[in-house]
């Protein structure tokens, strides 16, 4: 009876160590991305900009508070009375207070641009779409018989 080995024992051990190393490396990379700083460039309505660095665990509320507490020189004219009215806009959408930077899957090592505006309340989700639907249900035509 023949006994066939796929690899000599030393190659099998090397293969197992290689798989272990790759697994360990992927886990380290996955964990380290949680701790990589997130670079934001915030733009005011006036066009003034300022760069900030945050943790992926920071929320929109955390960012607003940090910016308020560390209001940049040169932004004096835009100073607001409370961090609670500062809102972040990313890719055309307001970020709600509990959204973290990590949840946005921002590219690590790059600066991401967001707008910072003063606004008391956030618009209702789909409020613009609801108004459009309401407008389309109306009819302004006249039918003559």
UniProtKB/TrEMBL annotation:
Spans annotated as Disordered: 121-140
GO CC terms of this entry: plasma membrane
Membrane in keyword set: yes
Subcellular location: Cell membrane
Domain Ubiquitin-like: 38-116
Bilayer disposition of the protein: Lipid-anchor
Keywords, alphabetical: Cell membrane, Lipoprotein, Membrane, Methylation, Palmitate, Prenylation
Superkingdom of the organism of origin: Eukaryota
Database matches in PROSITE patterns: UBIQUITIN_2 (PS50053)
Name of protein: Ubiquitin-like protein 3
Species this chain originates from: Oryzias sinensis
Lineage: Eukaryota, Metazoa, Chordata, Craniata, Vertebrata
